[in-house]
């Protein structure tokens, strides 16, 4: 916000000699230069990360080409590698997590903004924030030692009992697999998405919801017709940011997903996501090509998360601009 | 709103009450679902915290904080990982915070609105780069040639911390009243002196809050450290030019172990980490509330 012109030379009246004045100017120029360098450096860093990861993956990109992405193979012995199983694992776990997390997040945000009295809402909002602060490795430890066994012994048999005719709930329950990984991801997305939704709902103009209520709609009808409609683009951005988190989460997923190589219809089976495969095999690479393939996975992961994040940012800016214009 | 348009015969009492009843039931149901969601989130938090405390508290004793990890058996603690984590996080703060504050100053004080928006997008996208990709980046530019080192781990964490602190600082700087800057400039103080001795001191509380929250987050990051500082001996060391053991990586390995003694140590280490993270988060909250109250 440089509304005040530098060239008006503040300090000109005080600084007696030209030398002093030049000293002051020099300080200004230097400081500005350093700040500019830091900013340019940050932008450069982002580009450098993208370039370097592609560069590292290049041997494998050259070897397998783009078909790597839809090839289902991971065999260090015959040196055949493909990402399809991990793209599938990433997509499936993220999709399950999103389907569960979005309604829950909206529900929490509505509870905090519309239903709960302030004295109740404030501590609950804090607790939801603290849920976001739990390190993923701790969530993974809990996932592998407590949550996974619970899923295998109680949740999965229950699902199989009632919904066993669905192929996704077939097979024998296991402690590690797609389902526990997706549920852990849900736990990680909910606090982020609900915090964003809460901000959005707080910004919905009161007179719009009041208008809906005055027309005789119930509170839920005013929420559905006004609040959710008004916040819809923001909710989409929140979903994308949550998705970015789900794609990129390596540690907790590695701990609970079981590290399978194949594509399974059943959610009880083990699998792997792009991020979790990188984390679990970072040391185990036996050949140059396998190492390169792991880095190829990283390049795919980076591309996906860059796209998701940029789209989310664009939606947020548009939404803000539209709101300001309104 | 479709509800208003619904054909309701105002004189047909049964029809009216039916529609209303359905709407009331939906209203109640949605309320219950919303409360249920909030309860579920709080419940999960309580469940995770409760489990970590219950399973971790027994292993916490003086030895746990002062002894390094043993090769096997139930003796010993995690002093090595505590020291390593503290060193790496401290270096990360030293690397990231000055740069982040400078970026924020450039955005808030110098850049044109366009450049400022561009930088904001860059920072937000940088913030969205998965931690594991940042780990691979540092691995590729530094670890490949020089081997693992705590400094490289700190650099990876600093890349994660930079956008968090820069955005937090920039937001604080934007709400500092312009009159404060103008008063200083009108007194003949140069712009950079105004920024460093008027604007920054006014913003220091907010910047600290941002830094504390960022520290809490990077202290628990595991993925970047796997590539940069994971192959280390389990002994207390302050040699930052080599890989140092850290708390998150220790928990990660404990979680994979079949040895109950290791698992117990994993729970205790998780308890230490979680207490640190929660306390710093709550401190940051108190910080910012104190500022808002003034």
Q: What's the total count of β strands of chain A?
A: 2
**Greatest interface:** A-B, 105 and 99 residues
- Range of strand content of chain A: under 5%
What's the total helix number of chain A? 10
Structural shape of chain A = flat
SSE inventory with pairings:
The complex is a heterodimer of chains A (326) and B (294).
Chain A: H1 18-64, E1 74-75, E2 80-81, H2 84-115, H3 118-133, H4 136-163, H5 178-203, H6 206-214, H7 219-248, H8 251-257, H9 274-281, H10 288-325
Antiparallel strand pairs in A: 1-2
Chain B: H1 2-5, H2 13-56, H3 62-66, H4 79-110, H5 113-128, H6 131-146, H7 150-175, H8 178-186, H9 191-219, H10 223-228, H11 247-256, H12 260-293
Provide a short characterization of the protein structure.
Chain A has 326 residues and is mainly alpha-helical. Helices cover 74% and strands 1% of the residues of chain A.
Describe the structure.
The complex is a heterodimer of chains A (326) and B (294). The N terminus of chain A is likely disordered. The longest helix of chain A is centred in the N-terminal third of the chain and has 47 residues. In chain A, helix 5 packs across helix 7, helix 6 crosses helix 7 and helix 7 runs antiparallel to helix 10. A two-stranded antiparallel sheet of chain A has the order 1-2. Chain A is mainly alpha-helical and 326 residues long. Chain B is an all-alpha fold. In chain B, helix 4 crosses helix 11, helix 5 packs across helix 7 and helix 11 runs antiparallel to helix 12. Chain B is globular and about 70 Å long. At the A-B interface, helix 1, helix 2, helix 3, helix 4 and helix 5 of A face helix 2, helix 4, helix 5, helix 6 and helix 7 of B.
